[in-house]
Design a protein that fits this description.
This protein is of the alpha/beta class. The protein has helices at 15-18, 22-30, 44-47, 88-98, 108-118, 127-132, 147-150, 155-176; strands at 7-11, 34-39, 51-54, 63-66, 71-75, 135-136. The longest helix is centred in the last third of the chain and has 22 residues, at 155-176.
């Protein structure tokens, strides 16, 4: 509510509905200069957004999910997404490309392989393995029980994604949220 946060990208969440005090969420959102929502529904939060990207639901896309139980699960597309809805990874890649940071992925498998190469705790997981069974992190079959690799944060992943986050941060705050747009909320 202090106005420190000027832009927000809400991804698959509805803070207006999820916050126990909806007025608190609404007041905070109204202080933003710019908000993007990427979701499968036009949520209460999405109705307040400057831009809404229609996303595909889990049954409309291929890929993997890692849940809070640390289980990596393979998800398979059952139906096509409606209208202009698209898988999250395609939306993010296209947005990144338009902002000048090209992400060259042709499939969720390629993204998973990059995650696997950068995060030690995903070592040993591949699409072939998760086609047959869910996988829980850390891998109890690893020599150390999986805990050493699970507790190790790769400097490579930190550097790569810090670079991406900094790029997005600079682009949003220097390109979108400048005084060139006086009609924005205050």
């Amino acid at each position: 509510l202090s106005g420190e946060i000027r832009g927000l990208y809400v991804f698959g969440e509805d803070p207006v509905l999820a916050d126990p005090n909806a007025n608190h969420a609404i007041q905070a959102i109204e202080k933003l200069d710019f908000m993007v929502v990427q979701d499968i529904f036009l949520t209460e939060t999405a109705k307040m957004a400057d831009v809404v990207f229609p996303a595909a639901c889990f049954a409309e896309k291929d890929g993997t999910f890692t849940c809070t139980e640390r289980r990596v699960q393979r998800v398979r597309k059952a139906v096509d997404p409606p209208g202009e809805a698209r898988p999250d990874w395609k939306i993010i890649c296209d947005l990144s490309h338009k902002m000048g940071y090209t992400m060259r992925y042709d499939s969720p498998k390629e993204i998973f392989e990059e995650i696997n190469s950068l995060l030690p705790q995903y070592g040993g997981i591949n699409y072939d393995r998760i086609e047959k069974e869910d996988y829980t992190l850390p891998d109890p079959k690893a020599a150390d029980g999986g805990f050493k690799s699970f507790n190790t944060i790769s400097a490579t992943i930190y550097t790569r994604y810090t670079e991406i986050l900094n790029f997005f941060d600079n682009w949003i705050f220097r390109s979108i949220l400048t005084p060139q747009n006086p009609d924005k909320k205050s």
